[in-house]
Amino acid sequence: MNKTIFAVAASLLACAAWAETVVTIDAAKPGAVINKNVYGQFAEHLGTGIYEGMWVGPDSPIPNTKGWRNDVVDALKELHVPLVRWPGGCFADEYHWREGIGPRKDRPVKVNTMWGGVEEPNSVGTHEFFDLVELLGADAYVNGNLGTGSNQEMAEWLEYMTSNTKSGLAELRRKNGRDKPFKVAYFAVGNEAWGCGGNMTPAHYTNLYKTATTFLKAPHDNRPKFIASGGNDHDLTWTSTLSKEVKGNIDGISFHYYTIPTGKWEVKGAATGFGEGEWISTVKNTLAIDKMIANNVKVLDQNDPQKKIGFMVDEWGTWYDVEKGTNSGFLYQQNSLRDAVVAALNFNIFHNYAERVRMTNIAQMVNVLQAMILTDKDKMLKTPTYHAYHMYVPFQDATTLPVAIKDNASYKLGNTAVPQVSASAARGKDGKVYLALVNTNPNKETEVTVNVAGGKAGAVQGSVLTADAMDAHNTFAQPEAVKPVPFTAQAKGGKLSVKLPAKSVVVVNVE
Length: 511
Ligand code: AHR
Known about the structure:
This protein is α/β, with parallel strands linked by helices. 26% of the residues lie in helices and 26% in strands.
């Protein structure tokens, strides 16, 4: 090796040894508020997501309130769940609300043709759903049936829920036990109109949306925000057509994107027992949503410069091959540390688009896809995703603060490379500065220097979620194998260094 090459190699090695990520929070430049509904949830009549997982009925030996299991409701309350979307999903376009009101014993049993072909007892209907959201202290997001329903059916459902008059529908609601109107925060017209909602074109759906919303009426003090069914993945035509063509009566356009480890619907990849190849592809496929949101926001900024229309990611999360031995129509999957990392990466991205992304709903709340909670008869466990949501509670309604990341190394495997560190900061409603950090590298801890421009970072304290294995998860035998533990760091010599463990999520309050 000649002298020059040696000198270059030595200096590269030295750089590698010092290399550390520098995260600078600009506390003096507050940005948009992170709508608490970015932390919304989704509960569909699918598998054991509602029946068994949450609803056991008032006569169950499992302790419950108005039929909803107490253990699950108590755990969800700790997440400060702001919003629940119901009854679907694809199920919404086959749901007829009149079959879910009145005495439960008289309600028709149907077939859930969307999910597993099982019996749908209609035991959970409008009143039961509002019992749930009221127990949780959450807002309601009701998804109307455009596919097999009608404008009249949707309009009458909205009147039934919101009218304070003596109309026949309001009186029917009273007869069914609810005097005061329900509060509907959001009402969607159909779901995935490009697929299970009717295989429509954007232009056809846009016309149907305009007609439907003409007849969706509610008292001015109880008017929901109206959500149009939008696109998915890289398709921009839905956002573009809807935002160009619909004038008024549109508060948001929905968007769906699922993280599939292999990127292929036929063989998606397993929830546990995967190799590092599927770890990094999961991270990469998760981060892909950033560009999708950016592109949609660009279209919205052109067509809706006044920013009246929100971009609502009302379905997102991991979608794996179902667990062996379970009904393939039930979408039941384990949930590991990898899912917590996916959730945190998504949160950090959503925060960056807080101005437009005003609501998201992870799919789904219990026992379905990337769930918060798994249940087995009277047992329940909190998943790593649950813990990620819990750690991020201070970001609900917080004000974003710009974060600059310098010298962010890549985590690489084969031909795939992703940024090692993801970061997001906000000033919480309590006035404190919160910083969320993710280390995507499953093999290496990394050192992050934290600076607060216009302030001083003397110490950080909060919690960290990590584990030895990439697929570490909780089981009914070991429900607390993966859970957050306290995390602190102090400034030394005027420098605040935070050691992020390999494959970890950290949320701290910067003092
Ligand atoms: O979340 C499961 C399903 O995924 C929803 O019903 C549907 O909207 C989407 O395709």
